[in-house]
Design brief:
Length: about 450
């Protein structure tokens, strides 16, 4: 150990002063030969200490750079490993996407479809997904074949087939309501059952084609059982729920429904007929949303531009549909001489439209949850007054009685469907305004 500022040994002294020690100027020839022989591959002639640096360095990368009389062997420093490139691994995983893309926007849409967000892009040293997509698109190695010119995004066309199918449920619904008003007794029940079956089949046909059809390659009933069950319940409650709730709160029901507006269990024909007729405006609203989003994909320069244009488009489409639904409500209420029930019908119509738009664009989980929450609220409103009839359980019926006493029976479905529709609107504002939600998956409808 050194006692002060003295060097540790001869080699450390050389490092401190930069001048080789005289005692080490004449190295032992045997030690030099041992070093050189360890660097010479087997089967090659041995190089003497006087061999030039170029000759020794040509024998392999591990030979000394210079070795001669009076000089110590110095080894070439190993090259340092370069910094890790975080984008290179991402380019390897999405190489096929980058090679097939015709512009950075298509790469960004593909990254979003794989779940990559702006927060995840920060791990790759980029501020957002589009900036990362631009680098991936620029780093794709050039191929021998020239890149194809970007084709225009296909915009869905209006076809007479789905336009007529969207009108068919409304026509059958109007015929069913007319038949109910012209019949009495058992024929009325037969007309009601036959009309419901015909409207259900026509609605199913309308939802299997056109802008309200689900994505291709999915089963009609297997993937959206919860959504379909919730839709049937909500429509059934719109027809019979208010009358049943009124009967429950007044001590009934004592008789089954007679499908008559003035019966002991009255039915609301005007809201249900309006919702069936509104299937045509819903199809046109979905068409306007898809066509506007496809045009926005062609005009937008980045994802922020597309989102800024898609959000008012979504709100405008919903406003147009609600306007058409309100006009149909006023028309049906006037023709049937029945209350229009605007809060109940408008909130239910908005909920069903948003749920269908999300389902069409491959988002099925949120609609099922929202419809299930609305169904649970309406079912609870019917069950609590019945449970309040048990001894000591009158407090269970107090919330429903208070709500109905202040706002009427229509307040229950309006509250349930309105809350669920607001939740779906918030979710749609985050999902249906992304470019990946409107990427073309096949031929235009």
């Amino acid at each position: 150990m050194p006692s002060g500022a003295d060097p540790w040994d001869t080699r450390s002294g050389e490092l401190l002063t930069g001048v080789p020690d005289e005692r080490s100027a004449q190295p032992d020839e045997r030690s030099v030969q041992a070093v050189v022989s360890s660097c010479v591959p087997d089967g090659q002639p041995f190089a003497s200490p006087a061999t030039s640096a170029g000759q020794l360095s040509a024998q392999g990368p591990a030979t000394p750079l210079a070795l001669g009389e009076g000089a110590r062997p110095r080894w070439a420093p190993a090259p340092r490993r370069g910094s890790v490139d975080p984008v290179k691994s991402l380019l390897y995983r999405h190489r096929e996407l980058c090679e097939r893309a015709v512009d950075p926007l298509e790469v960004a849409a593909g990254l979003e479809a794989h779940g990559l967000t702006d927060r995840a892009a920060a791990r790759f040293r980029h501020r957002d997904v589009f900036s990362l997509a631009e680098e991936l698109y620029a780093r794709v190695p050039p191929t021998a074949e020239p890149r194809p010119e970007p084709e225009p995004v296909p915009v869905p066309r209006v076809r007479a087939g789905w336009a007529l199918l969207a009108l068919l449920p409304g026509v059958l619904g109007a015929a069913t309501v007319t038949g109910l008003r012209l019949t009495q007794g058992h024929p009325r029940q037969s007309v009601a059952l036959g009309g419901l079956l015909a409207v259900a089949l026509a609605t199913r046909a309308a939802l299997r084609s056109g802008p309200l059809a689900g994505p291709p390659g999915t089963r009609a009933w297997g993937t959206t059982v919860g959504t379909r069950a919730g839709t049937l319940w909500l429509l059934g409650y719109a027809l019979l729920g208010d009358g049943l709730l009124h009967s429950v709160l007044t001590g009934g029901p004592d008789t089954p429904p007679t499908m008559a507006p003035d019966g002991p269990w009255p039915t609301a024909n005007a809201p249900v007929l309006t919702l069936v007729l509104a299937l045509a405006p819903a199809a046109w609203s979905a068409h306007l949303l898809t066509a506007g989003a496809r045009r926005g994909l062609a005009r937008s320069r980045d994802l922020e531009d597309f989102t800024a244009a898609a959000r008012p488009l979504l709100l405008g489409v919903l406003a147009v549909f609600l306007g058409a639904l309100a006009a149909l409500l006023a028309l049906c209420g006037t023709l049937l001489h029945a209350p229009a029930a605007y809060p109940q019908a408008l909130t239910l119509g908005a909920l069903l439209l948003l749920a269908r738009l999300l389902t069409v664009h491959r988002h099925r989980h949120a609609p099922a949850l929202a419809l299930g929450a609305a169904v649970a609220t309406e079912a609870g409103a019917l069950a609590l007054p019945l449970a309040g009839r048990l001894p000591g359980c009158a407090f269970l019926a107090a919330p429903v009685e208070t709500l109905v006493g202040a706002w009427g029976e229509t307040a229950v479905p309006a509250l349930a469907c309105g809350t669920a529709a607001l939740a779906l609107l918030w979710h749609a504002g985050r999902t249906l305004t992304q470019a990946s939600a409107h990427a073309p998956t096949g031929a235009p409808d």
